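Good morning,

Attaching, inline, the backbone tokens for the sequence recovery test we're adding to the shared suite. The designed sequence is right after.
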């Protein structure tokens, strides 16, 4: 009897390869998506292998519940994240620049809307008792620095330019009076009895990206921090920085929050638990220029003031009503602005080029004093330091007999004869030593904000 052949077992099926790439999980959203895929995949496998209709129905209900729970958690996470990034402490939710306006809407605003002084945005008309002012950047800065003398203000900030700063202020001022021995200021009992009068105010400052003195185009972050550094925050300390992108306008927004917390104080004649004096700077990206919304207000914690609450509600509505202009030919206008900035820079160089050269050349000579020109290596280093100044003088069109003699001596030093070079550099160093305490020429500056230094 022949041997019965043993059947060869069929090879085990190869499990399907997962398309899930763990290296792509680099943030919370991919992680949540991967979690959903894994859990729903396991539940789907259970549904497929269910032995009876009851088990299959139960698995389907769990799958639906997990999916709905995931969607609810995701939406709550996104909403909370946006709220934390956009809404300053103590204010109702704000949503500035989520919508845009057309040039026609700016030229002919609706009855309850006003256009910005520079014609690049609109905002809600405040109540009649709120003060609305249009100021130049110099006037606004002088007011914040409490400069009242026109001659001093002009000397420090320059002549007033266009009135492109919009200030909207509540008639109500919040009186915060410390209680000596009880009031705690930012965690410390501080010996003070001076009243603090907090305003509720919104100021909108347009920021040119290419600002004086050198008309170099800077980022939204640079301009926002520059303005924050120049704004008199006083005793307020920075508490929060956040950045986000708003939809559907897709504009970048940067928020800087300053505040001072005062515990156990009198607010408008009533004893309150906690009052906070706040300044929030919201920088919003524009198409041809950026905007800064400066928000000043005070709010209460553990207490209530009907008038203050109403002012904060109006302030929040004003912030949310800010609508920047949507331009059709933004690229062309940006090109024109760059050309205008280039022309202004050329004017600056023509007027102040010699001052710029003088400042740098004086610093050069002071550095050359530290070198021993009789040492060949140090002398070669000095030649490398002086050589670019010859090209700078030619670029700025500066002609001077002493400089011409120095350039000739520099050329001879490069060829090996350094006698005249050492003599002229030594004389320059001696002269620099005599005038070392003289202040270098001041370079041109402008007021903070729309005309501030870049």
């Amino acid at each position: 009897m022949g041997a019965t052949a043993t059947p060869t077992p069929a090879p085990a099926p190869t499990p399907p390869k997962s398309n899930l790439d763990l290296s792509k999980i680099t943030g919370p959203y991919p992680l949540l998506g991967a979690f959903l895929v894994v859990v729903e995949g396991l539940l789907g496998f259970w549904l497929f292998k269910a032995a009876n209709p009851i088990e299959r129905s139960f698995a389907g209900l769990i799958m639906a519940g997990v999916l709905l729970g995931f969607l609810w958690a995701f939406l709550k996470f996104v909403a909370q994240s946006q709220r934390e990034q956009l809404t300053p402490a103590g204010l109702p939710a704000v949503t500035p620049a989520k919508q845009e306006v057309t040039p026609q809407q700016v030229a002919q605003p609706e009855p309850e809307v006003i256009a910005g002084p520079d014609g690049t945005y609109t905002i809600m008309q405040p109540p009649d008792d709120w003060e609305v002012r249009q100021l130049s950047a110099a006037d606004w800065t002088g007011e914040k620095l409490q400069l009242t003398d026109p001659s001093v203000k002009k000397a420090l900030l320059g002549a007033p330019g266009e009135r492109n700063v919009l200030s909207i202020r509540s008639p109500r001022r919040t009186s915060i009076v410390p209680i000596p021995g009880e009031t705690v200021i930012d965690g410390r009992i501080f010996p003070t009895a001076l009243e603090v009068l907090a305003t509720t105010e919104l100021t909108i400052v347009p920021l040119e990206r290419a600002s004086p003195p050198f008309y170099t185009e800077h980022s939204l972050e640079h301009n926002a921090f520059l303005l924050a550094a120049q704004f008199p925050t006083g005793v307020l300390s920075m508490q929060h920085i956040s950045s986000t992108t708003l939809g559907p306008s897709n504009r970048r927004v940067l928020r800087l929050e300053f505040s001072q917390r005062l515990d156990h104080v009198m607010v408008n004649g009533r004893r309150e638990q906690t009052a906070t004096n706040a300044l929030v700077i919201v920088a919003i990206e524009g198409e041809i220029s950026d905007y800064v919304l400066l928000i000043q207000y005070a709010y209460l914690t553990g207490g209530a003031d009907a008038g203050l609450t109403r002012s904060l509600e109006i302030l929040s509505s004003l912030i949310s009503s800010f609508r920047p202009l949507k331009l059709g030919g933004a690229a062309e206008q940006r090109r024109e602005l760059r050309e205008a900035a280039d022309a202004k820079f050329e004017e600056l160089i023509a007027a102040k080029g010699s001052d710029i050269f003088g400042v740098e050349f004086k610093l050069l000579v002071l550095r050359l004093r530290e070198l021993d020109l009789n040492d060949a290596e140090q002398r070669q280093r000095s030649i490398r330091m002086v050589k670019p100044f010859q090209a700078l003088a030619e670029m700025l069109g500066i002609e001077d007999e002493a400089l011409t003699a120095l350039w000739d001596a520099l050329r001879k030093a490069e060829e090996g004869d350094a006698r005249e070079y050492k003599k002229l550099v030594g004389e320059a160093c001696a002269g620099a030593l005599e005038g070392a305490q003289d202040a270098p020429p001041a370079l041109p500056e402008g007021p903070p904000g729309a005309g501030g230094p870049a």
